[in-house]
Structure formats: structure tokens, C-alpha cells
Amino acid sequence: MGFREDLQNDIQAVFHNSAEFSDEKEIVYNGDIYTVPAVVSRYVPQEYSHLNGRRNGTGYGDGIYEISDIVYIPYESLGFLPGINNEIWISDKRYDIISAELLLEKEIVLKLRRYDE
């Protein structure tokens, strides 16, 4: 068994195992609903790490914060790579897709942004 096969087995059996790291998430994209195993991780830029990943509201109005998350989804569960500059809903939260990557034709990595009060 080679590296790619080992990686694929780990992605399925460990990283996207709902009992280990991921959760079943309901995703709405282009009006279609998907239930997939996903790992959502808070992205905290270095300059905002002391603010718990939230900006101080500057530029967004008082009390409005920009929140960035990264989501990992197995490609075989979703079947396509979502496009950037589109909206996606994950567990009833609306996000804008900032970047989308397909790693080794197996793993979707989306950098997302949303605004919150």
C-alpha cells in the first residue's frame, strides 16, 4: 500500500470518522442540501489571535465581527468542489467561500467568512 492509499484510509477512517473528529453537517449549496461528515475549524489570523478570532468591529460597524472558518469535507461525500465567491450554509450559518481547494483529489478544504454580532 502506498502513501496515497494510506492517506485515503486515514481521511475516511480517522479524520472524517464522526466518533473521532468530524460531525455530520447539513450543507446547503446552490439550493441543494447535503449531509456530510465535516470538520469545521476556527481560523484565527496571527494579528487577531488575542481577540479570539474576532475583529474589533472596525470597518464593519459597531458590534459586527468578521469570522473566518476552515471546513474539511471528503470529496466523495460531496462529489464536487464548491466555487469561490459563492455562499454556502453549514448548520444554519451563512458563509461566503473565500477559497476552495481539492487536495489529492480526496479532500475539500474551504476557507469561509461570515459576519456576526
Structural class: mainly beta
Largest sheet: 6 strands, antiparallel, barrel
- End-to-end separation: 49 Å
**H/E element sequence:** HEEEHEEE
Q: Provide the β-strand percentage band.
A: over 45%
In short:
The chain has helices at residues 3-15, 75-78, and strands at 23-29, 32-42, 65-74, 87-90, 93-103, 107-116. The protein has 117 residues and is mainly beta.
Give structural notes:
The protein has 117 residues and is mostly beta strands. About 10% of the residues have low confidence. A hairpin with a 3-residue loop joins strand 5 and strand 6. The chain has a 6-stranded antiparallel beta barrel with strand order 1-2-3-6-5-4. The relative contact order is 0.19. The protein has 2 helices and 6 strands.
Supply database-style keywords.
mainly beta; 117 residues
Q: Would you spell out the secondary-structure blueprint of this structure?
A:
Layout (H helix, E strand, L loop, with lengths): L2 H13 L7 E7 L2 E11 L22 E10 H4 L8 E4 L2 E11 L3 E10 L1
Antiparallel strand pairs: 1-2, 1-4, 2-3, 3-6, 4-5, 5-6
